[in-house]
Amino acid sequence: MIQVKNLIKVFGTKVAVDDVSFSVEKGEVLGFLGPNGAGKSTTMRMVTGYFKPTSGSVQLCGVDMIEEPELAKQRLGYLPENAPLYSDMTVASFLGFCAELRGIHGAARTKAIDRVLDLCFLDNVRNQSVDTLSKGYRHRTCFAQSIIHDPDVLILDEPTDGLDPNQKHEVRGMIKRMGRDKAIIFSTHILEEVEAACSRAIIIDRGKIVADGTPESLKKLVPGAASLDEVFRSITKPDTVQKKAA
Amino acid sequence: MSNRDIQNTLAVFKREFLGYFNSPVFYVIVVIFLLAANGFTFFVSNILDFDDVSLSARFFVWHPWIYTVLAPAVGMRLWSEEHRLGTIELLMTMPVSPWQAIMGKFFAAAGVWLIALVLTLPIVITMGVLGDPDSGPVISGYVASYLYAMACLALTSAVSAFTRSQVVCFIISVFFCLCIGMIGFPSLTHTVVNAVPSGMESIVRFICYFSFMDHFFELTKGIFVLKDILYFVSVIIVSLLLTDFGLRSKRA
Ligand SMILES: Nc1ncnc2c1ncn2[C@@H]1O[C@H](COP(=O)(O)OP(=O)(O)OP(=O)(O)O)[C@@H](O)[C@H]1O
Ligand SMILES: [Mg+2]
Fold this sequence. Notes:
The structure holds two protein chains of two kinds.
Chain A: E1 2-11, E2 14-24, E3 29-33, H1 40-47, E4 55-60, E5 63-64, H2 69-74, E6 76-79, H3 91-101, H4 106-119, H5 135-146, E7 153-157, H6 165-178, E8 183-187, H7 191-197, E9 200-205, E10 208-213, H8 215-221, H9 228-235, H10 239-245
Helix pairs in contact in A: 3-4
Chain B: H1 3-22, H2 25-48, H3 55-58, H4 63-75, H5 77-85, H6 87-91, H7 98-118, H8 121-130, H9 136-162, H10 166-182, H11 186-195, H12 201-208, H13 212-220, H14 226-251
Helix pairs in contact in B: 1-7, 2-4, 2-7, 4-9, 4-10, 5-9, 7-9, 7-14, 9-10, 9-13, 9-14, 11-12, 13-14
């Protein structure tokens, strides 16, 4: 459902994403791992059509993102990093606005809002201004926005960032459940999450894919590694090492 | 325009338009606009003792100066705020074309301005009842005034697409509106035309042709001049095209 081919993104002279290709089928949950600045968010921004790739192609459900962006975006739900929200709206009016942009109107709109308020445990803040929400609630509101139209493709940039342990657990469960009939990509820095929710994981380092496989197969990449954590540390080099060498 | 175009534009319009009322911006701007419009008309115009006592001279003549400051104040949040909050990333990954969003936002600001102008009607009606009963110049004055405001707003929209700072957007927009207004200011033009060598005169006049001010005064004179209306409409269209360009360059 998601087809990414030879994606490259250059900012000035810096190559942020360097020839990344992968595909995600319906029923798959792909975990995106990598150190800070590896290019995870940049890749996701290209997949969602926010950034124009320097070169390469993205297809969602067979629709090309560069040629027919509006059509491709209809199939997509996206939670950007840092969960941006319009600060002058209430939770319910924000979700209503997003529903309208998704082409959901009238009674269906009310139903869609109620459904996601319920799914994301936001019912008690539905009429609160998003300005006054706590960080976790802000994150959940933006997450609710991404699933309001029940999309085929879901892209989540650090969906569990800032959530309390209960909510983290809830969101992981939700991703796993939704993953049965959607194609999902989510990025995270919490490696247990990968084992809990992903059917596959990709590790990106400095713009390149350095590992791709099921969580179990990734563990086997490094002999003697007991956890994904150790695998992650041995195949990605921290920025500090790179700087000292330079 | 398809159904989808209209629905998306309308959704953005509604959000933006209501947004003005949820923040103090609208109330502050309208109050200041009414104070300035009345203040200039009744106090400054009297002190200056214009030869021309018609409404258009006393009332509308001040509008370009007021808009130079207030239109950027209304328009600066259009795209800068989206950049600052990061919501631009949400908006641009929705199945909404940049044009639908640009139009929705522009019309929302235009709607706010329409309300502000309508609120000046009471003064104008009072003046009309007391003096000149001819309504022609009043209507053309309003058309000129509104088009001038829209041109300033569209310019501000273009500037705001390039920056995430509302303050930067405000200052640059005021500067642009001021320049493009001033270059056609009659007394300034005269001075410049007299100062430059005779060959350069036509160049100065050509540049002045692009000023808002010239077209504004032509319009307020009460003759509906199609070319002046077309001028303002094309300024607005070009500015909105620039807005689109700005948004694209930020995402490139
Ligand atoms: N708009 C931009 N202009 C210039 N450089 C950028 C831009 N956006 C990202 N970068 C650079 O691209 C690289 C990849 O950034 P990206 O945000 O994709 O990292 P990430 O993997 O999401 O990191 P994190 O785990 O911290 O979220 C970084 O070096 C960043 O500085
Ligand atoms: Mg990131």
